[in-house]
Amino acid sequence: MREMDRLRRSGRYASALALIRQLAETYPRQVRILSELGQTLGIWGGEPAEALIWYERVLELAPGHNTTRLHRALSLARLGRHAEAVADFDALVEKGYRKALVIHMKRAESLEALGRDEEAERDWTLAVAEDPGNPWLLQQRASVRARLGRLNDAVKDLSDALATQEGEDVDPELLWQRGVLRTRLGDADGARADFESGLTSFREGDPPRLLDALRAGLAESMRR
């Protein structure tokens, strides 16, 4: 197993896959080997559909193998089978699985895909509690709160996210998002300041569409 992991981490995926397949053939009821085969396919190989076959086999042999259940949930989500993924995430939460941050993040994404935004907002809140001040998590919660019509709460999330950044680390996308929300709230001066700051913070490598959106937002705020 160590050799297989070394091969995976060194980028020798084909060799790692051949080795773990050989081990699975030799030990067809060893749940750790079967789970590692699934992870090799799903994580390193980008083959979630084939990985599911092995995760299913592990859970038939050992229904309580929570690490495999987590990886099955992640593969189901990647395949767009979000309702099934949520069911697995729910089971892991009920069992108190240790990777709470990952579970809440990924379940929130699947809940959003299912249009269950109120439940998604609760999961993003739980994720923020696990990693307070994480700007990406705050941004995700802001997005879902905005869809729920909780614009002031969304603006606060984006402000909290921006408070963690300074200088070249300021994310212009956060400023654009906050500017859009402030426009919706009727705060033209605040929106204009955000769009101007976003243009100042725009960095080489940021998407051109963001630059266009910042310019359009600023032009709109100037007309108000």
Structural summary, described in words:
The protein has 224 residues and is mainly α. It has a domain at 160-224. The protein is 76% helix and 0% strand. The protein is elongated.
Q: Give the helix/strand class.
A: mainly alpha
Coarse shape = elongated
Strand content bin: under 5%
* Helix-strand pattern: HHHHHHHHHHHHH
Overall strand count:
0
> So how many helices?
13
Main sheet record: none
> How confident overall, as mean pLDDT?
94
Radius of gyration over C-alpha positions, nearest whole angstrom = 22 Å
Low-confidence stretches: none
Q: N- to C-terminal separation?
A: 64 Å
In summary, what is this structure?
It comes from Pyxidicoccus parkwayensis. This protein has 224 residues and is mainly alpha-helical.
How is the secondary structure organized here?
Blueprint: H1 2-9, H2 13-26, H3 31-44, H4 48-61, H5 66-78, H6 82-94, H7 100-113, H8 117-130, H9 135-147, H10 151-162, H11 172-184, H12 188-201, H13 208-222
Organism: Pyxidicoccus parkwayensis
InterPro entries: TPR-like_helical_dom_sf, TPR_rpt, Ycf3
Keywords: Repeat, TPR repeat
